[in-house]
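Fresh eyes needed here. I'd like your take on this protein's tokenised backbone:
***
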Amino acid sequence: MLLFWQILPWLVLVLGAALHFSSRRRHKRDLASSNLGLQRILQAVESASDAIGIGDFEGNSTYHNKAHKALFGYTVEELNALPGSGTLFADKETAKAIMASIYDRKSWQGETDIITKAGKRIPAFVRADIILDEKGNRVGIFGVFRDITKERRMAEEVARASKLDSLGLMAGGIAHDFNNLLTVMLGQVMMAQMEPFEEYSVKESLEEIRKVTLRARDLTLRLKSFAKGEAPSMSPVELPAVVKEAVNLALTGSKVRAVIEMQPNLSAVMADDTQILQVLHNLALNAVQAMPGGGTLTIKGTSVQPGESNFIAVAGRKWVRVSITDTGIGIPAENLGRVFEPFFTTKPKGTGLGLATCYSVVKRHGGYLSVDSIEGTGTTFIMLLPACELVPVRA
């Protein structure tokens, strides 16, 4: 009778053989599964509508999918035979920026024009990234290209249609501004008619009408240049006087009380006085409309030194900060990020151009415009304009 220790080596040998064969079968299954996974990935890449290309860090292309060949017209061999780099890009500086980003292990994405084998220039959305091995070493790069010709064409058609629509909306906005000016004129005429015929009262009314009429004339000239996209007519502007005039226009006939606090010796700003007046007037008018039952409109003007505001992107420049705060209904959180969008409005008869125009005008002046609001509490608009340090405002 064999003892257990005598047959133990044979058991180990048989068990080892069984494990070996089992391991080989499992390895074959894993390998087959891995190959199947790679085949499926390759099929997906080949059938993708986006053009996909892979290359090494020596500038050689190693793989193109079908969409890449259809878009550019090059095979891998044809592209590698061409001298130089960045062949696929119309802008060689963009090609350099992409490669610099990849070498820095950062992905790059954006819109740029590409060049096909036939020399056709096509707008495309491009994404490029680095390929790393399991140890984190750089082994290659890949690029994904999407032809956005149709999207560009549709955007241009929408823009053309929007321009036609905006003509009517702009006419309505201009009529609105002129109506405000005419309201002041008519109000002064009615006051002069109601008052006893005394020289001083008529003179004051006529002077107010004269000023508003001149402002209407300037508005017409500025609107013509603004509509053509011309730069603002810049000169040193003292904001306290402009703020006072804008607020007086906006508050005519309302129950809103104005509080104006302008810092003594506030720096003047380099601006187009008529355009900035319209910005302040629109912001003040919005505030008045947000307080139909009355409230308080507070306008503050202060100097801002370099680095004192999150809006300031240019070092070494001084700014003037004007805040317009109301105690009105506020702006819902879901609308706060859209208030400067053209044609966006929550008013039944609004054009959606008022705040968009304000934002555009301030940006053209090299300034910043932002908004902060809590629904049911009130809204604050903050405008920053470059200071004109050589012309201080009189206190």
